[in-house]
Automatic annotation (TrEMBL):
It comes from the Bacteria. One of its GO terms (molecular function) is carbohydrate binding. Residues 54-305 form the Periplasmic binding protein domain. It holds the Pfam family Peripla_BP_4. GO terms for cellular component: cell envelope. Coiled coil: none annotated. This is Sugar ABC transporter substrate-binding protein. It is found in: Cell envelope. Belongs to the bacterial solute-binding protein 2 family. Keywords: Signal. It comes from Streptomyces paludis.
């Protein structure tokens, strides 16, 4: 997950997060960097290039978002006839994932895409790949050493919190002494801390709003239900809830319905299809969700292909791909849910 201290290239629309900006490219070879009559770079991003193998290593798909990551990568690779995707089974065991990456290194794949179970713990194997001449695309959970990857692409966890806080702030800006609560993710993860910090920083813009409670869950339906039940029991009255994750949000909604509560609004996180369906139906407290797009995996495959075929991204002056891409955390509510519904993951 990105840290606020590292260099980031921000793209301001969700369409970019889906990899639309990666659909065309220019060659890194000076002789091939032809320009058209209007001095725009020639583009050939969708045309087959040289055959390459992309190794993909991610954690176990035991969560809707992680499963969507795998599916996005597979589907994107199939788009390119010259790309072979060598994908590992996926594991949350750090030693096992390191072994899987080392196997891909030994196979001499052309490019590696790695979504580490733990960025810090897999930094050394990322460095090993880079030193072996295999460029690494670091996906989402960031390595602790920038030399361990050629390019980073991921979501904006701090931005998620800011977007959620501003959405709630705008909805409650005219309410005196408004109260909000937060159902966070796993507190030991940097991403959870960043989401909370962004949320708290955004709420500073609304002096009439106070955060009165926070519980950390575990990104599961069961934990969401249990922790939400505790919050509801402790807080007899509040105006808004931000839930970090739509998977645990399924359980949170269950607890809310069982308690018969409908006196507040709820904002989710990540962009699950179930959340978007509920937002569209507009028959529950869930009124919005903040995106953390799994389409980043499709874009990671695009970046890997460009690297393997020594191409850059069209629309940018540089002949090389960016060192970093951070996706925008858009808010989906009833006004724009139809636009984003096709991107919802199961």
């Amino acid at each position: 997950m990105p840290e606020t201290s590292r260099r980031r290239l921000l793209f301001g629309t969700a369409a970019l997060s889906a990899g639309a900006f990666l659909t065309a490219c220019t060659s890194n070879e000076p002789a091939a960097a032809e320009t058209s009559a209007n001095n725009e770079p020639a583009t050939d991003g969708d045309k087959p290039g040289k055959a390459i193998t992309i190794g993909f290593a991610g954690p176990q798909a035991d969560h809707g978002w992680l499963n969507a990551i795998n599916e996005q990568a597979k589907a994107r690779a199939k788009k390119y006839s010259e790309v072979t995707l060598d994908i590992t089974e996926g594991s949350n065991d750090i030693a096992a994932q390191i072994g899987q990456v080392e196997t891909l290194i030994n196979k001499k794949v052309d490019v590696l895409v790695i979504l580490p179970a733990d960025g810090k713990a897999l930094t050394q194997v990322g460095l090993k790949a880079m030193r072996a001449g295999i460029p690494v695309i670091n996906l989402d959970r960031i390595f602790s050493n920038p030399q361990a990857y050629r390019a980073y692409i991921g979501g904006d966890n701090y931005g998620m919190g800011v977007s959620a806080g501003n959405y709630i702030g705008q909805r409650l800006k005219d309410k005196k002494d408004a109260k909000v609560i937060e159902l966070a993710g796993i507190d030991g993860l940097e991403l959870t801390q960043q989401r909370t910090k962004g949320f708290d920083d955004a709420l500073k813009n609304y002096p009439n709003i106070k955060k009165v409670a926070r519980q950390a869950a575990d990104f599961t339906v069961e934990s969401g239900q249990a922790k939400m039940a505790q919050l509801l029991q402790a807080q007899s009255s509040f105006d808004a809830l931000w839930n970090h994750d739509d998977d645990q949000g399924v359980g949170a909604l269950r607890a809310i319905q069982q308690a018969g509560r409908d006196d507040f609004l709820m904002v989710g996180g990540a962009g699950a299809k179930s959340a978007m369906d509920a937002i569209k139906a507009d028959n529950s407290v869930l009124k919005a969700t903040v995106l953390y797009p799994p389409t980043m995996a499709a874009s990671a495959i695009d970046l890997a292909r460009f690297l393997g075929q020594t191409k850059g991204v069209s629309g940018l002056a540089e002949l090389e791909i960016p060192a970093s891409v951070t996706l925008y955390s858009a808010v989906v509510d009833k006004d724009n849910v139809d636009q984003y519904l096709p991107t919802g993951f199961r």
